[in-house]
Design goal:
It is a single chain. The protein starts with 14 loop residues before the first helix and ends with a helix. The chain is built from 16 helices and 13 strands. It has helices at 15-23, 30-47, 110-113, 117-134, 179-190, 203-212, 273-281, 289-294, 296-312, 321-325, 333-340, 348-356, 365-397, 409-413, 417-428, 442-466; strands at 61-62, 75-82, 86-95, 98-107, 142-148, 152-153, 161-162, 195-201, 218-224, 228-235, 251-255, 401-407, 433-438. The longest helix has 33 residues, at 365-397. The chain is an alpha/beta fold and 467 residues long. Helix 11 packs across helix 13 (365-397). The protein has a six-stranded mixed β-sheet with strand order 1-11-10-9-12-13, sandwiched between helices.
Length: 467
Amino acid sequence: MKLLSFVHNPRNNDPSRKVEEVLSQFDLSKETLITVMKRMRQHCEMGLTKSNRRQSDLLMLPTFVRSLPDGSERGDFMALDLGGTNFRVLTVHINDHQIDTKSERFTMPEAVMTGTSDELFDYLAGCIAEYVHRHNLADKRIPMGFTFSFPFWSNSLDSARLLSWTKGFNIPSVVNEDVVELLKRSLKKRQDIDVEIVAVLNDTVGTIAACGFEDQSCNVGLIVGTGTNACYVERLDNVELWEGDRDHPKQMVINCEWGAFGNGGALDDIRTEYDRIVDNDSLNSGKHIYEKMISGMYLGEVCRHVMLDLVERGVLFDSTAAAVLKQRGVFETRHVSEVESDTSNNLQFVGTLLLSELKLAKVTDEDCSLVLSVCQAVSKRAARLAAAGLATLVTKVNKPQITIAVDGSLYIKHPTFKDIMEAELKNLAPQFDILLKTSSDGSGRGAALVAASVIRERQDRLINKSV
Protein backbone atom coordinates (compact mmCIF):
# COMPACT_ATOMS: atom_id res chain seq x y z
CA MET A 1 0.00 0.00 0.00
CA LYS A 2 1.19 3.46 -0.81
CA LEU A 3 2.21 5.36 2.30
CA LEU A 4 0.38 8.67 2.43
CA SER A 5 2.70 11.07 4.17
CA PHE A 6 2.86 14.83 4.06
CA VAL A 7 5.96 16.52 2.75
CA HIS A 8 6.11 20.30 2.90
CA ASN A 9 8.72 22.27 1.03
CA PRO A 10 8.83 25.82 2.39
CA ARG A 11 10.47 26.98 -0.84
CA ASN A 12 7.42 26.00 -2.83
CA ASN A 13 5.13 29.04 -2.92
CA ASP A 14 2.71 27.78 -5.58
CA PRO A 15 -0.75 27.93 -3.87
CA SER A 16 -2.24 25.22 -6.08
CA ARG A 17 0.65 22.89 -5.27
CA LYS A 18 0.14 23.50 -1.53
CA VAL A 19 -3.54 22.67 -1.85
CA GLU A 20 -2.77 19.53 -3.86
CA GLU A 21 -0.23 18.38 -1.27
CA VAL A 22 -2.88 18.59 1.43
CA LEU A 23 -6.00 17.29 -0.32
CA SER A 24 -4.28 14.46 -2.20
CA GLN A 25 -3.82 12.71 1.15
CA PHE A 26 -7.57 12.03 1.16
CA ASP A 27 -7.66 10.57 -2.36
CA LEU A 28 -7.34 6.83 -1.82
CA SER A 29 -6.60 4.59 -4.79
CA LYS A 30 -8.64 1.48 -5.54
CA GLU A 31 -5.54 -0.56 -4.68
CA THR A 32 -5.45 1.08 -1.25
CA LEU A 33 -9.14 0.34 -0.63
CA ILE A 34 -8.67 -3.30 -1.65
CA THR A 35 -5.83 -3.55 0.88
CA VAL A 36 -8.15 -2.09 3.54
CA MET A 37 -10.68 -4.79 2.60
CA LYS A 38 -8.09 -7.55 2.98
CA ARG A 39 -7.05 -6.29 6.38
CA MET A 40 -10.64 -5.96 7.59
CA ARG A 41 -11.43 -9.46 6.32
CA GLN A 42 -8.49 -10.78 8.34
CA HIS A 43 -9.75 -9.05 11.48
CA CYS A 44 -13.29 -10.35 10.86
CA GLU A 45 -12.06 -13.92 10.65
CA MET A 46 -9.79 -13.61 13.69
CA GLY A 47 -12.66 -12.14 15.68
CA LEU A 48 -14.82 -15.21 15.02
CA THR A 49 -12.26 -17.63 16.45
CA LYS A 50 -11.61 -18.65 20.04
CA SER A 51 -7.83 -18.58 19.85
CA ASN A 52 -7.17 -15.37 17.87
CA ARG A 53 -10.10 -13.11 18.68
CA ARG A 54 -8.08 -10.97 21.09
CA GLN A 55 -5.80 -10.05 18.17
CA SER A 56 -8.74 -8.64 16.22
CA ASP A 57 -9.77 -4.99 16.32
CA LEU A 58 -13.34 -6.13 15.69
CA LEU A 59 -15.36 -7.61 18.55
CA MET A 60 -17.47 -9.73 16.12
CA LEU A 61 -20.14 -10.27 18.76
CA PRO A 62 -22.65 -13.11 18.28
CA THR A 63 -26.09 -11.54 18.67
CA PHE A 64 -28.07 -14.79 19.11
CA VAL A 65 -30.37 -13.48 16.37
CA ARG A 66 -30.56 -16.58 14.21
CA SER A 67 -33.64 -15.79 12.18
CA LEU A 68 -34.60 -12.42 10.70
CA PRO A 69 -38.22 -11.42 10.06
CA ASP A 70 -39.56 -13.00 6.88
CA GLY A 71 -42.82 -11.09 6.44
CA SER A 72 -45.05 -13.80 7.91
CA GLU A 73 -45.08 -12.33 11.44
CA ARG A 74 -48.39 -11.33 13.00
CA GLY A 75 -49.54 -9.76 16.25
CA ASP A 76 -48.84 -6.97 18.74
CA PHE A 77 -45.35 -6.28 20.05
CA MET A 78 -43.50 -3.65 22.03
CA ALA A 79 -40.05 -2.15 21.65
CA LEU A 80 -37.72 -0.13 23.82
CA ASP A 81 -35.00 2.09 22.38
CA LEU A 82 -32.22 3.36 24.65
CA GLY A 83 -29.14 4.85 23.09
CA GLY A 84 -28.78 8.51 23.96
CA THR A 85 -30.55 11.40 25.61
CA ASN A 86 -34.00 10.01 24.78
CA PHE A 87 -35.75 6.76 25.64
CA ARG A 88 -38.50 5.53 23.34
CA VAL A 89 -41.31 3.10 24.03
CA LEU A 90 -43.21 1.73 21.03
CA THR A 91 -46.06 -0.59 20.16
CA VAL A 92 -46.09 -2.30 16.78
CA HIS A 93 -49.08 -4.05 15.22
CA ILE A 94 -48.24 -6.43 12.37
CA ASN A 95 -50.84 -7.92 10.04
CA ASP A 96 -50.75 -8.95 6.36
CA HIS A 97 -47.31 -7.40 5.75
CA GLN A 98 -48.54 -4.10 7.17
CA ILE A 99 -46.93 -2.46 10.20
CA ASP A 100 -48.64 0.13 12.36
CA THR A 101 -46.37 1.86 14.88
CA LYS A 102 -47.08 4.12 17.83
CA SER A 103 -44.38 5.57 20.05
CA GLU A 104 -43.58 8.02 22.80
CA ARG A 105 -40.29 9.65 23.63
CA PHE A 106 -39.07 10.25 27.17
CA THR A 107 -36.17 12.57 28.01
CA MET A 108 -33.27 10.98 29.86
CA PRO A 109 -32.30 13.32 32.73
CA GLU A 110 -28.55 13.76 33.09
CA ALA A 111 -28.83 12.85 36.76
CA VAL A 112 -30.27 9.47 35.75
CA MET A 113 -27.61 8.93 33.07
CA THR A 114 -24.87 9.41 35.66
CA GLY A 115 -26.65 8.22 38.80
CA THR A 116 -27.09 4.73 40.24
CA SER A 117 -28.19 1.49 38.67
CA ASP A 118 -31.52 1.54 40.51
CA GLU A 119 -32.19 5.14 39.48
CA LEU A 120 -31.65 4.30 35.80
CA PHE A 121 -33.69 1.13 35.58
CA ASP A 122 -36.45 2.33 37.89
CA TYR A 123 -36.78 5.38 35.66
CA LEU A 124 -36.98 3.21 32.52
CA ALA A 125 -39.55 0.96 34.19
CA GLY A 126 -41.59 4.02 35.13
CA CYS A 127 -41.58 5.26 31.52
CA ILE A 128 -42.70 1.82 30.28
CA ALA A 129 -45.49 1.70 32.86
CA GLU A 130 -46.65 5.19 31.96
CA TYR A 131 -46.84 4.21 28.30
CA VAL A 132 -48.62 0.90 29.02
CA HIS A 133 -51.29 2.52 31.19
CA ARG A 134 -51.81 5.46 28.84
CA HIS A 135 -52.47 3.05 25.96
CA ASN A 136 -54.62 0.63 28.01
CA LEU A 137 -52.21 -2.30 27.66
CA ALA A 138 -51.89 -3.27 31.32
CA ASP A 139 -54.12 -6.34 30.95
CA LYS A 140 -52.00 -7.80 28.13
CA ARG A 141 -48.70 -9.70 28.20
CA ILE A 142 -46.86 -8.28 25.20
CA PRO A 143 -43.56 -9.62 23.81
CA MET A 144 -40.92 -6.90 23.74
CA GLY A 145 -37.66 -6.22 21.91
CA PHE A 146 -35.09 -3.98 23.59
CA THR A 147 -32.64 -1.93 21.52
CA PHE A 148 -29.70 -1.20 23.80
CA SER A 149 -27.22 0.78 21.72
CA PHE A 150 -24.12 0.28 23.81
CA PRO A 151 -21.40 -2.39 23.51
CA PHE A 152 -22.56 -5.57 25.21
CA TRP A 153 -21.91 -9.29 25.28
CA SER A 154 -24.78 -11.78 25.07
CA ASN A 155 -25.15 -15.25 26.55
CA SER A 156 -28.62 -15.59 25.06
CA LEU A 157 -31.01 -13.63 22.90
CA ASP A 158 -32.49 -11.97 25.97
CA SER A 159 -29.29 -11.14 27.85
CA ALA A 160 -26.87 -8.22 27.50
CA ARG A 161 -23.83 -7.80 29.73
CA LEU A 162 -22.70 -4.19 29.37
CA LEU A 163 -19.07 -3.84 28.24
CA SER A 164 -18.80 -0.06 28.46
CA TRP A 165 -20.91 3.09 28.54
CA THR A 166 -20.86 5.69 25.77
CA LYS A 167 -23.02 8.66 24.68
CA GLY A 168 -22.92 10.50 28.00
CA PHE A 169 -23.93 7.60 30.25
CA ASN A 170 -21.63 6.85 33.16
CA ILE A 171 -22.90 4.41 35.79
CA PRO A 172 -19.90 2.21 36.65
CA SER A 173 -21.91 -0.25 38.74
CA VAL A 174 -23.82 -1.39 35.64
CA VAL A 175 -20.70 -2.37 33.66
CA ASN A 176 -20.40 -6.18 33.42
CA GLU A 177 -23.99 -6.54 34.59
CA ASP A 178 -26.90 -7.94 32.56
CA VAL A 179 -29.02 -4.90 31.74
CA VAL A 180 -32.04 -7.04 30.85
CA GLU A 181 -32.06 -8.61 34.32
CA LEU A 182 -31.69 -5.18 35.91
CA LEU A 183 -34.66 -3.86 33.93
CA LYS A 184 -36.73 -6.95 34.74
CA ARG A 185 -36.01 -6.41 38.43
CA SER A 186 -37.23 -2.81 38.26
CA LEU A 187 -40.34 -3.84 36.33
CA LYS A 188 -41.10 -6.58 38.87
CA LYS A 189 -40.89 -4.10 41.74
CA ARG A 190 -43.75 -2.11 40.23
CA GLN A 191 -46.19 -5.07 40.00
CA ASP A 192 -48.52 -3.08 37.74
CA ILE A 193 -47.50 -4.21 34.24
CA ASP A 194 -46.65 -7.53 32.60
CA VAL A 195 -44.19 -7.45 29.70
CA GLU A 196 -41.85 -10.14 28.38
CA ILE A 197 -38.46 -9.04 27.07
CA VAL A 198 -37.71 -11.71 24.47
CA ALA A 199 -34.78 -10.10 22.66
CA VAL A 200 -32.11 -7.47 23.21
CA LEU A 201 -30.16 -6.03 20.31
CA ASN A 202 -28.23 -2.98 19.21
CA ASP A 203 -29.43 -0.43 16.67
CA THR A 204 -27.41 -1.95 13.81
CA VAL A 205 -29.11 -5.33 14.22
CA GLY A 206 -32.44 -3.50 14.40
CA THR A 207 -31.65 -1.88 11.07
CA ILE A 208 -31.15 -5.22 9.32
CA ALA A 209 -34.29 -6.62 10.96
CA ALA A 210 -36.49 -3.69 9.90
CA CYS A 211 -35.38 -4.11 6.29
CA GLY A 212 -35.50 -7.92 6.37
CA PHE A 213 -39.24 -7.91 7.01
CA GLU A 214 -39.76 -6.61 3.48
CA ASP A 215 -36.65 -7.97 1.73
CA GLN A 216 -35.37 -11.44 2.57
CA SER A 217 -32.17 -10.73 0.60
CA CYS A 218 -31.09 -8.36 3.38
CA ASN A 219 -27.90 -9.80 4.86
CA VAL A 220 -25.94 -6.70 5.90
CA GLY A 221 -26.86 -3.75 8.10
CA LEU A 222 -25.04 -0.43 8.35
CA ILE A 223 -25.40 2.66 10.48
CA VAL A 224 -23.41 5.72 9.54
CA GLY A 225 -24.44 8.77 11.48
CA THR A 226 -22.85 10.27 14.57
CA GLY A 227 -21.02 6.94 14.85
CA THR A 228 -20.80 3.93 12.57
CA ASN A 229 -21.23 0.18 12.89
CA ALA A 230 -22.19 -2.79 10.77
CA CYS A 231 -23.59 -6.28 11.17
CA TYR A 232 -24.12 -9.17 8.78
CA VAL A 233 -25.52 -12.70 8.58
CA GLU A 234 -22.75 -15.28 9.04
CA ARG A 235 -22.85 -19.06 8.57
CA LEU A 236 -22.55 -20.81 11.92
CA ASP A 237 -19.81 -23.05 10.56
CA ASN A 238 -17.61 -19.95 10.40
CA VAL A 239 -18.31 -18.89 13.99
CA GLU A 240 -15.85 -20.97 15.98
CA LEU A 241 -16.58 -19.12 19.21
CA TRP A 242 -20.28 -20.06 19.04
CA GLU A 243 -20.95 -22.73 21.68
CA GLY A 244 -24.69 -23.12 21.23
CA ASP A 245 -26.65 -25.50 19.03
CA ARG A 246 -25.94 -25.62 15.33
CA ASP A 247 -29.43 -26.65 14.31
CA HIS A 248 -31.52 -24.85 11.72
CA PRO A 249 -31.25 -21.97 10.98
CA LYS A 250 -27.50 -22.48 10.62
CA GLN A 251 -26.73 -18.78 10.72
CA MET A 252 -26.20 -15.91 13.13
CA VAL A 253 -26.25 -12.12 12.86
CA ILE A 254 -22.79 -10.90 13.88
CA ASN A 255 -22.36 -7.41 15.34
CA CYS A 256 -18.96 -6.30 14.03
CA GLU A 257 -18.47 -3.18 16.16
CA TRP A 258 -16.36 -2.08 13.21
CA GLY A 259 -15.73 1.46 14.42
CA ALA A 260 -12.74 0.02 16.30
CA PHE A 261 -11.04 -1.20 13.11
CA GLY A 262 -7.59 0.36 12.97
CA ASN A 263 -7.09 0.44 16.75
CA GLY A 264 -4.14 -1.92 16.32
CA GLY A 265 -2.54 0.01 13.48
CA ALA A 266 -4.26 -1.46 10.40
CA LEU A 267 -5.08 2.03 9.08
CA ASP A 268 -1.93 3.86 10.16
CA ASP A 269 -0.56 4.15 6.64
CA ILE A 270 -3.64 5.98 5.34
CA ARG A 271 -4.30 8.19 8.34
CA THR A 272 -3.35 11.81 7.86
CA GLU A 273 -1.85 14.17 10.39
CA TYR A 274 -5.31 15.71 10.68
CA ASP A 275 -6.80 12.34 11.65
CA ARG A 276 -4.16 11.95 14.33
CA ILE A 277 -4.87 15.38 15.78
CA VAL A 278 -8.61 14.67 15.91
CA ASP A 279 -7.91 11.34 17.59
CA ASN A 280 -5.56 12.88 20.14
CA ASP A 281 -8.13 15.53 21.00
CA SER A 282 -10.95 13.01 21.45
CA LEU A 283 -12.20 11.51 24.70
CA ASN A 284 -11.16 8.00 23.57
CA SER A 285 -7.76 8.60 22.00
CA GLY A 286 -6.36 5.56 20.22
CA LYS A 287 -9.78 3.92 19.91
CA HIS A 288 -12.44 3.77 17.20
CA ILE A 289 -9.95 4.83 14.51
CA TYR A 290 -12.12 3.73 11.55
CA GLU A 291 -15.13 5.54 13.02
CA LYS A 292 -13.12 8.75 13.35
CA MET A 293 -12.34 8.66 9.62
CA ILE A 294 -15.97 8.08 8.61
CA SER A 295 -18.66 9.19 11.03
CA GLY A 296 -20.51 12.42 11.55
CA MET A 297 -19.06 13.05 14.99
CA TYR A 298 -15.62 13.70 13.50
CA LEU A 299 -15.86 14.84 9.83
CA GLY A 300 -16.34 18.48 10.75
CA GLU A 301 -13.27 18.39 13.00
CA VAL A 302 -11.12 16.80 10.29
CA CYS A 303 -12.20 19.55 7.89
CA ARG A 304 -11.47 22.21 10.49
CA HIS A 305 -7.89 21.04 10.94
CA VAL A 306 -7.36 20.87 7.17
CA MET A 307 -8.65 24.42 6.78
CA LEU A 308 -6.49 25.64 9.66
CA ASP A 309 -3.43 24.15 7.99
CA LEU A 310 -4.32 25.85 4.71
CA VAL A 311 -4.71 29.18 6.52
CA GLU A 312 -1.29 28.77 8.07
CA ARG A 313 0.12 28.00 4.62
CA GLY A 314 -1.32 31.26 3.34
CA VAL A 315 -3.71 29.79 0.76
CA LEU A 316 -7.07 30.12 2.56
CA PHE A 317 -8.75 33.18 4.10
CA ASP A 318 -6.45 35.71 5.77
CA SER A 319 -4.29 35.20 8.83
CA THR A 320 -7.02 36.34 11.25
CA ALA A 321 -9.02 33.18 10.45
CA ALA A 322 -6.51 31.02 12.32
CA ALA A 323 -7.84 32.19 15.70
CA VAL A 324 -11.37 31.17 14.70
CA LEU A 325 -10.39 27.79 13.29
CA LYS A 326 -8.39 26.91 16.39
CA GLN A 327 -11.67 26.66 18.30
CA ARG A 328 -12.68 23.03 18.68
CA GLY A 329 -16.12 22.31 17.24
CA VAL A 330 -16.50 25.61 15.41
CA PHE A 331 -16.95 23.78 12.07
CA GLU A 332 -19.46 20.96 12.48
CA THR A 333 -20.39 18.06 10.23
CA ARG A 334 -23.71 19.77 9.51
CA HIS A 335 -21.64 22.60 8.04
CA VAL A 336 -19.89 20.06 5.82
CA SER A 337 -23.25 18.91 4.47
CA GLU A 338 -24.46 22.48 4.03
CA VAL A 339 -21.32 23.50 2.14
CA GLU A 340 -21.60 20.53 -0.22
CA SER A 341 -25.30 21.25 -0.77
CA ASP A 342 -24.66 24.77 -2.08
CA THR A 343 -25.71 25.06 -5.74
CA SER A 344 -25.89 28.87 -5.81
CA ASN A 345 -23.84 31.06 -8.11
CA ASN A 346 -20.36 31.74 -6.72
CA LEU A 347 -21.19 29.59 -3.66
CA GLN A 348 -23.07 32.43 -2.02
CA PHE A 349 -24.49 30.20 0.69
CA VAL A 350 -21.02 28.98 1.65
CA GLY A 351 -19.87 32.59 1.95
CA THR A 352 -22.83 33.47 4.14
CA LEU A 353 -22.22 30.45 6.35
CA LEU A 354 -18.55 31.31 6.85
CA LEU A 355 -19.31 34.95 7.64
CA SER A 356 -22.36 34.46 9.86
CA GLU A 357 -21.64 31.21 11.70
CA LEU A 358 -17.85 31.15 11.84
CA LYS A 359 -17.71 34.96 12.16
CA LEU A 360 -14.83 35.27 9.71
CA ALA A 361 -13.88 38.85 8.85
CA LYS A 362 -13.45 38.37 5.12
CA VAL A 363 -14.29 35.62 2.66
CA THR A 364 -13.52 35.59 -1.09
CA ASP A 365 -15.03 33.47 -3.86
CA GLU A 366 -11.73 31.57 -3.99
CA ASP A 367 -12.01 30.86 -0.25
CA CYS A 368 -15.51 29.45 -0.70
CA SER A 369 -14.34 27.22 -3.54
CA LEU A 370 -11.44 25.89 -1.48
CA VAL A 371 -13.64 25.22 1.55
CA LEU A 372 -15.93 23.24 -0.76
CA SER A 373 -12.95 21.24 -2.03
CA VAL A 374 -11.86 20.45 1.53
CA CYS A 375 -15.32 19.23 2.50
CA GLN A 376 -15.63 17.16 -0.66
CA ALA A 377 -12.24 15.52 -0.15
CA VAL A 378 -12.92 14.55 3.47
CA SER A 379 -16.48 13.37 2.78
CA LYS A 380 -15.47 11.38 -0.29
CA ARG A 381 -12.77 9.55 1.63
CA ALA A 382 -15.26 8.74 4.38
CA ALA A 383 -17.81 7.34 1.93
CA ARG A 384 -15.21 5.27 0.09
CA LEU A 385 -13.80 3.85 3.34
CA ALA A 386 -17.33 2.89 4.38
CA ALA A 387 -17.75 1.23 0.98
CA ALA A 388 -14.55 -0.77 1.53
CA GLY A 389 -15.98 -2.04 4.82
CA LEU A 390 -19.28 -2.98 3.18
CA ALA A 391 -17.48 -4.71 0.31
CA THR A 392 -15.63 -6.79 2.91
CA LEU A 393 -18.91 -7.96 4.45
CA VAL A 394 -20.58 -8.50 1.07
CA THR A 395 -17.76 -10.77 -0.08
CA LYS A 396 -17.94 -12.59 3.27
CA VAL A 397 -21.69 -13.21 2.90
CA ASN A 398 -20.97 -14.30 -0.70
CA LYS A 399 -24.47 -14.40 -2.15
CA PRO A 400 -25.24 -13.27 -5.72
CA GLN A 401 -27.95 -10.82 -4.60
CA ILE A 402 -27.50 -8.86 -1.39
CA THR A 403 -29.53 -6.04 0.12
CA ILE A 404 -27.81 -3.75 2.61
CA ALA A 405 -30.02 -1.99 5.15
CA VAL A 406 -28.67 1.48 5.91
CA ASP A 407 -29.60 4.12 8.44
CA GLY A 408 -27.94 7.13 10.03
CA SER A 409 -27.97 10.88 9.69
CA LEU A 410 -24.78 11.14 7.61
CA TYR A 411 -26.08 8.66 5.06
CA ILE A 412 -29.52 10.28 4.90
CA LYS A 413 -28.70 13.98 5.14
CA HIS A 414 -25.33 14.41 3.40
CA PRO A 415 -25.88 15.37 -0.25
CA THR A 416 -23.31 12.99 -1.83
CA PHE A 417 -22.27 10.41 0.79
CA LYS A 418 -24.87 7.83 -0.29
CA ASP A 419 -24.10 8.06 -4.01
CA ILE A 420 -20.31 7.96 -3.54
CA MET A 421 -20.50 4.99 -1.17
CA GLU A 422 -22.81 3.07 -3.47
CA ALA A 423 -20.68 3.70 -6.57
CA GLU A 424 -17.48 2.69 -4.77
CA LEU A 425 -19.12 -0.42 -3.34
CA LYS A 426 -20.06 -1.60 -6.80
CA ASN A 427 -16.55 -0.78 -7.99
CA LEU A 428 -14.99 -2.90 -5.23
CA ALA A 429 -17.47 -5.80 -5.42
CA PRO A 430 -18.69 -5.84 -9.04
CA GLN A 431 -19.51 -9.57 -8.98
CA PHE A 432 -22.48 -9.03 -6.66
CA ASP A 433 -25.92 -7.55 -7.33
CA ILE A 434 -26.11 -5.10 -4.43
CA LEU A 435 -29.07 -2.99 -3.37
CA LEU A 436 -28.76 -0.32 -0.68
CA LYS A 437 -32.06 0.29 1.07
CA THR A 438 -32.78 2.91 3.69
CA SER A 439 -34.04 1.12 6.79
CA SER A 440 -36.76 3.03 8.60
CA ASP A 441 -36.47 3.17 12.40
CA GLY A 442 -34.34 0.09 12.94
CA SER A 443 -33.80 0.90 16.60
CA GLY A 444 -37.55 1.01 17.24
CA ARG A 445 -39.51 -0.95 14.67
CA GLY A 446 -36.56 -3.31 14.14
CA ALA A 447 -36.54 -4.34 17.81
CA ALA A 448 -40.25 -5.17 17.69
CA LEU A 449 -39.73 -7.18 14.51
CA VAL A 450 -36.96 -9.22 16.12
CA ALA A 451 -39.36 -9.94 18.99
CA ALA A 452 -41.98 -10.93 16.40
CA SER A 453 -39.57 -13.34 14.70
CA VAL A 454 -38.76 -14.93 18.09
CA ILE A 455 -42.44 -15.56 18.73
CA ARG A 456 -42.86 -16.92 15.18
CA GLU A 457 -39.99 -19.37 15.78
CA ARG A 458 -41.59 -20.50 19.05
CA GLN A 459 -44.88 -21.16 17.30
CA ASP A 460 -43.16 -23.01 14.45
CA ARG A 461 -41.35 -25.28 16.91
CA LEU A 462 -44.62 -26.08 18.71
CA ILE A 463 -46.28 -26.96 15.41
CA ASN A 464 -43.38 -29.16 14.38
CA LYS A 465 -43.44 -31.00 17.70
CA SER A 466 -47.17 -31.67 17.40
CA VAL A 467 -46.86 -33.10 13.90
